[in-house]
Specification:
Layout lengths: L1 H17 L12 E2 L7 E2 L6 E5 L1 H6 L5 H5 L5 E5 L8 E5 L6 H4 E5 L2 E2 L18 E8 L3 H4 L6 E7 L8 E9 L3 E11 L3 E12 L8 E14 L2 E15 L4 E4 L4 E2 H4 L10 E17 L2 E18 L6 E20 L2 E19 L10 E19 L4 E20 L14 E19 L2 E12 L7 E3 L5 E3 L5 E13 L4 E12 L2 E2 L10 E2 L3 E14 L2 E14 L3 E2 L2 E2 L11 E10 L4 E10 L19 E12 L2 E8 L7 E6 L7 E5 L4 E10 L1
Parallel strand pairs: 6-9
Antiparallel strand pairs: 1-2, 3-8, 4-5, 6-7, 8-9, 10-11, 10-41, 11-12, 12-13, 13-14, 14-17, 15-16, 15-40, 17-18, 18-19, 19-20, 20-21, 21-22, 22-23, 23-24, 24-27, 25-26, 27-28, 28-31, 29-30, 31-32, 32-35, 33-34, 35-36, 36-37, 37-38, 38-41, 39-40
Length: 680
């Protein structure tokens, strides 16, 4: 019944928005960066782009970026602990367990994805600093390189230029002992500006051993003079988080921790620390109709983690340094817009393992790896006529990784061996062709085809063999051939979009820590295809938007772990996803908003054969929020998971016991209140 009711509501929204009369309203031109890596009006290129505005971010009851993204078509979010998005993965177009490595996350055009499996640090990006979020669905390797297979999320931060000086303090308290403080300030002028934002988050978490302590600082300094602009970004964050582990279910012995002890922990001693630092410099210059940009970026990430493993402790420290240089230029020549660029990146990765923090001075494993990539790309946009635009582009990329493992058998806790040193050198290419046709002032059709790729990360090649000895298992690059067509209609207030897509994936890179001797592997061929539908409409003070995703991800051939996978569904990919968002300006000072998300059932991780007989259940989560402004004050309150749904978004099947699995339950009904004071 829930699914049917919500589906009818979403259908009604899209139908009404698609045929709504365009009202006399002023809506500024939406500028996007991601599709071309240069600022341009939205709707120019044949790409499936959604722009989440600042107003939509403020209206959303969610307090994290992944939760906001999950309200849009083609995008899902999987969380482990429900702790400020600290362990959340965003999945564009159904990549399941490998979503984090197939969804490219950018902040102001700079990569957050690293060569380990730690994922993007969503919780380090304060929502108050975000101007808009740009989402490009489908392969985007021509302009963005490896890893942009499912799509790209580009988080654009707010500029201090051309705005009045401002400062503010905010505080939020909520369920599970959650406390958050934030301070921000902006000094601004027409050609010089500076913004600083400091944030502190504390929470005891929904479950036992689920505490989260995080502090972050972000800065943005900009200078603009004439046709030149320089942007300096700097920041860092520190986090200490406790890891409650999974809840186990095994019907054959009557065990069901999800029912008997949902909030408990199976890993009371496990924890993880992270310390991030980032620095980026962007120079942009406009000369006539042409433009040139150079991005320089440096990031350091130091991590430590302790896992007890039932009395067989594992303590590890990792250090990762990344530096990148990305010059690019745009030339307008008659009816052509030509974009050329180069991306150069280098990562230095180090891992030390011991059986306790006190013994890390003599680790039994010292792993070091260097990864380099060099990519060059070219894209041409051709205006064929007043209503036709064509694009064509190509990219060539070189990839190299060198890895070395040193083992000390005399170190405390030593139990394995050193992996023989290894290296891998690869070359890959990407291409794309697209066309956009404007049927009417409010309607456009587009179609695109392309080839995208990604390379394996360090964490995906360092595994054990059948004898439990460490080795580097170098994997083939993953290749995807994509086709997509779509229709867009309406304005920023009334409109919608429809997209149909298919992607044939070869040698998909897959993490398999559950089978000794296999480690990480290239999967048999598979196909992803589906439909994405978004609609939006408004009546006076009421704004309504909806999104529906129909997604299929299936193996087309081959065997895995001795099982024929032809026709089997890829785990962790729900068939249906529905979302409804409502915002009501009740008065000049008061605004109410609500969101409802339905996600259908899906197979567990590690259940590629689809034989467990149990799936992650379907769930519906409803969130609500109210905001009131009074003078310099902004008051807000929210209730999340309003109807107290007992749900989880990730579970994994046991590789050793036929009916056993582990799930990660998420919080029931919870809420928060906040107060913000803005100095004038």
């Amino acid at each position: 019944m829930r699914q049917t009711t919500l589906a009818l509501a979403l259908s009604a929204v899209f139908i009404s928005s698609a045929h709504a009369e365009t009202l006399p309203e002023f809506i500024g031109e939406t500028i996007v960066v991601t599709p071309s890596r240069f600022a341009e009006p939205d709707g120019v290129r044949p790409a499936n782009v959604t722009v989440i505005s600042r107003r939509e971010i403020e209206d959303n009851p969610a307090t994290t970026l992944p939760a906001i993204l999950a309200d849009y078509a083609g995008i899902g979010a999987r969380d482990l602990f429900g702790s400020n998005a600290s362990n959340t993965t965003v999945d564009i177009r159904g990549f399941g367990a490998a979503a984090g490595q197939n969804t490219l996350v950018l902040v102001d055009g700079r990569r957050l994805n690293d060569i380990d499996l730690s994922g993007a640090v969503w919780s380090a990006i304060p929502l108050s600093a975000v101007e808009r979020i740009e989402i490009v669905r489908g392969g985007a390797s021509v302009l963005h390189g490896g890893g942009a297979v499912g799509g790209v999320v580009n988080i654009i931060t707010r500029s201090p230029l051309g705005k009045p000086d401002a400062a503010g303090l905010s505080s939020r308290i909520g369920s599970f002992g959650t406390r958050e403080m934030q301070a921000y300030g902006t000094l601004s002028g027409d050609d010089l500006g500076l913004t600083l934002t400091a944030n502190r988050h504390r929470s005891d978490g929904y479950r036992d051993n689920n505490q989260n302590r995080q502090d972050s600082l972000a800065g943005d300094a900009r200078w603009k003079r004439g046709d030149a602009e320089w942007i300096l970004k700097f920041g860092g964050d520190r986090q200490h988080i406790r890891l409650p582990g999974a809840r186990a279910v095994q019907p054959s012995i009557g065990q069901n921790d999800l029912v008997d002890d949902r909030e408990g922990t199976s890993t009371p001693l496990d924890w993880a620390d992270r310390d991030d630092r980032q620095l980026g410099l962007t120079g942009h210059y406009t000369f006539g109709a042409h433009a040139a940009t150079i991005d320089l970026a440096y990031r350091n990430k130091a991590q430590a983690a302790y896992f007890d493993f039932g009395g067989f402790p594992d303590y590890r420290e990792t250090d990762l340094d990344m530096i990148s240089v990305s010059p690019r230029a745009k030339f307008k020549l008659a009816n052509h817009t030509l974009i050329i660029g180069v991306d150069v990146s280098r990562w230095e990765y180090g891992l030390e393992r011991s059986n306790a923090p006190a013994n890390i001075g003599q680790p039994f494993t010292r792993l070091s790896a260097t990864q380099r990539s060099l990519g060059a790309y070219l894209q041409d946009q051709i205006v064929v006529g007043p209503d036709w635009v064509l694009t064509a582009g190509a990219r060539a990329e070189q990839f190299a990784i060198r890895a070395r493992d040193v083992y000390d058998p005399l170190a405390p806790g030593a139990f394995s061996s050193a992996a023989p040193s290894g290296r891998q050198d690869e070359r890959e290419y990407a291409w794309e062709l697209g066309a956009r046709y404007r049927v009417s002032p409010a309607d456009s059709l587009y179609a695109k085809a392309g080839r995208s790729f990604r390379f394996a990360t360090v964490d995906e090649i360092y595994e054990t063999n059948a004898a439990w000895a460490q080795e580097f298992q170098f994997l083939k690059p993953q290749i995807s051939h994509d086709l997509e067509t779509g229709w867009e209609t309406g304005t920023a207030r009334h409109g919608g979009r429809l997209a149909l897509y298919t992607a044939r994936v070869k040698d998909e890179i897959h993490l398999d820590p559950y089978s000794a001797g296999i480690g990480n592997t290239n999967l048999p061929p598979l196909t992803r295809y589906g439909l994405e539908l978004e609609g939006r409409t408004g009546w006076g003070a009421l704004q309504l938007s909806s999104a529906y995703t129909l997604a299929f991800a299936r193996f087309t051939d081959g065997r895995y772990n001795g099982v024929d996978l032809e026709g089997k569904d890829v785990p962790l990919v729900p068939r249906h996803k529905l979302a409804l968002n409502l915002a009501w300006q009740a008065s000049a000072a008061t605004r109410l908003s609500a969101s409802a998300n339905y996600v259908s059932r899906q197979y567990f991780d590690n259940d590629e054969p689809n034989t467990l007989g149990v799936r992650i259940p379907a769930y519906t989560v409803v969130d609500t929020r109210i905001e009131h402004r009074a003078g310099n004050w902004i008051w807000a309150a929210a209730i999340n998971n309003l109807f107290d749904e007992a749900y989880y978004t990730y579970a994994v099947r046991s590789n050793f016991t036929p009916d056993r699995y582990a799930a990660y339950p998420l919080p029931g009904r919870h809420g928060w209140v906040s107060a913000e004071y803005r100095f004038r």
